[in-house]
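Database export, one record per block. Field names are fixed; values are copied verbatim from the stored entry.
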Amino acid sequence: MASDKSLAAEIEAVRLTDAQRDFLNWLNTQPNHEAEWTRNGKRTSRGPEFWTHLKVSGPTGSWVIEKGQLWPIAELYGPAEFGSGNVYALTDAGRLALAPNTTEGRSDRG
């Protein structure tokens, strides 16, 4: 496991937007068992250049986030631990990014 110092360096360049912070908070607190790429609100099986949003769903609801909001935070979430019942989970860097007492974890909200 990486140290907090190396994790802080890993996310130093990432400034979370409100949409990114909300998505990571949702992943961190809600069970999720399905994910699908969508275009114009509908599931798509075409390649990544056609995707516009990621929809992650679970028994308590779902979350939709724009594809462009995901790429900058790709290191902050990933596949959940096998057997957890979830598709995605936060990485150590993701948990640190959400920590309220870190500069890196603060959003761009003024």
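Remark 1: Strands lie at 34-39, 42-43, 53-58, 61-66, 77-79, 88-90.
Remark 2: Residues 18-29 form the longest helix (12 residues).
End of record.
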